[in-house]
Amino acid sequence: MGTPELGAVVAGAGISGLAAALELQESGAEILVVDASDRPGGVMRTDHIGGFVIERGPNTTQVKAPMLAFLRRQGAEDQMVAARSEGRRRYFYRDGELVRVPDSPIAFARSPLLTGKAKLRMLAEPLMRRRDAEGESVSEFIGRRLGDEVASALVGPFLTGVYAGNERELGVEAVFPSLVEHERKSGSLAIGMISSALRRGGPKGLRGSWSAPNGMGPFARSLAERLVEAPALESRVTGLRRDGDAWLVFISGPGGPQRLRAKRVVLAVPAPQAAEILRGVDTDLAEALEQIDYAPIVGVPLGVTPSAVRTKIDGFGFLVPHQPDVSLLGCLFMSRLFAGRAPTGRDLFQCLLGGTHWREAIDQPDDVILKKLHADLDQIVGLDEEPETLAITRVRQAIPQPGRNHRRLIAEIRRRLAELPDIELAGAYLDGISVSDALASGLGAASRLEQRTAAQQ
Ligand SMILES: Cc1cc2nc3c(=O)[nH]c(=O)nc-3n(C[C@H](O)[C@H](O)[C@H](O)COP(=O)(O)OP(=O)(O)OC[C@H]3O[C@@H](n4cnc5c(N)ncnc54)[C@H](O)[C@@H]3O)c2cc1C
Question: How many A from CA of 379 to the centre of ligand 1?
Answer without folding.
Answer: 32
